[in-house]
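User: Before I run my own analysis I want an independent prediction to cross-check against. Here's the chain; please return only the C-alpha cells and, at the end, one sentence I can use as a sanity check.
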Amino acid sequence: MKILRELLKITLFEPWPLWVGMLALTITNLYMFMFARALGVFPQMAMWGSWIYNLLGWQIESPFPPYPVKLPYLDQHSLLDLGIILGALSVALINREFKLRKENFLGYLMGAIGGFLMGLGTVLMPPCNVGGFWVATMAFSLSGPLAGIGLFIGAYIGGKILKTQVSKAVEIIDFNKAQKAEPVLSKKHSISTFLGFIFIISLLLISLIYYYYGMPVHAGLFLFGAFFGIIFQRSRICFVAAFREITISKDGKIMKWVLISIGISAIGFAILKSKGYQPYHMVFPAGWHNVLGGLIFGIGMVLAGGCGVGILVRSGEGYTRSWIAILTGMLTSGAWTGIYKHKVGEGWLYGSPVFLPEKLGWAGAFLVIFGFLFIFYLIITWLEGKKYEGN
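Assistant: C-alpha cells:
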C-alpha cells in the first residue's frame, strides 16, 4: 500500500519533469496507435462544428472524410478529445489548480481570432500541429516536415504580435492600484481534491459503460484521452511554447524534446508500418498548403494561448479564452465543405498523400525524416547560441 500511495502521489500530485512528460506522451501515443489510432484532435472538433451547423439547418458534411457528422458521444474520435478535457479537469481539481480564469475583451478577441485561424489552418495543413506535424512526421508522411516549416514561421509571427500586445499592456499598468495578494490555501483536505477523484472514478465508469454496450474502441479512446489530459496537465508540455520560444526567447529546450520524441516514435511506427499495420495512417496530402496551413495555424495557436491539444487541456483547467478558441475553431473548420465545396484532401487545393517509404524505401524515408530532425536541431542550437552573442 505504501508503494501504491507513493506512486499515486508522484503521478497525480507532483509536477512532472519535461522529459518524463515527453516520454509518457511518446509511449502513450504509440500504444494508442497499436490500439486504434495516433493522437490528433482538431478533425473531430471540425466535425462538432459541422454537427452544430446541421442542427441549425445548414446541411453540410464534415470536412475530414474519416469523421462523418454524428452525435459527439457516439463518435469514438470525439471521445478522445472529451477524455483530454476531463482528464485535465480531474487532475487540476485534485491539485486545486482549477479556476474559472476570465479575460478582458482583448483576451477573448485574441482567443476568437486564434481559434478562427486554427480552424482555417487545420483544413489547409491538414490537420493540427500535433497530428499534422508531430504524428505525421513520425508516421513518415512528407506533409509533416512541410507543416513544421509553416508552424515555425507562424509561431514566430504570432509571438511578435503577442509580444507587442504585452508591451503595450505593461505600459498602462498602474502598479499602485495592484490588488493585495491573498495567501495560498493548503492543498490538504480540500473538497476540490475530493471532486477530482470523483471525476477520475467517473471516467473509469463511463469507459466501462461504453465497453458494456459493445463499443470497446470508444471506451479505449476515452481512457487514452484522459491519460493524455493528465500527461499534458502535470508535465506542462506546450507545443505552442516549443515553437514560439525558439525565436522569441531563443530557448529550444521544449522543441528539442519534441524532436527526440519524434525520433523515438518513428522507430516504433516504422516497425509497425513495415509489417503492414495501418501503413497509410496519419499520411496526409503534401504540398504548398502544408506550409500555408501551418503558418496560419501557428499564428492562431499563439494568439489563442494553446494548440489543438492545448486549448482542450486549458479548457479543463478553466481558461475561458480556450473555450472561445474551441468554439470559433470548430465553427470555422466545420464550415469548410460549405465554402470550398470539397472535403479536405480533395479538389485543386491539395496535393497527393506522400508516404515516404513507398517513394524512397525505408532507408530513404529514415534519411529524410532523421535528416529533417537533425537540421531542425542544428537550427535550434544556432538560435540558442545567438542569445548570448555580445555578452
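Sanity check: The chain has a mean pLDDT of 93.
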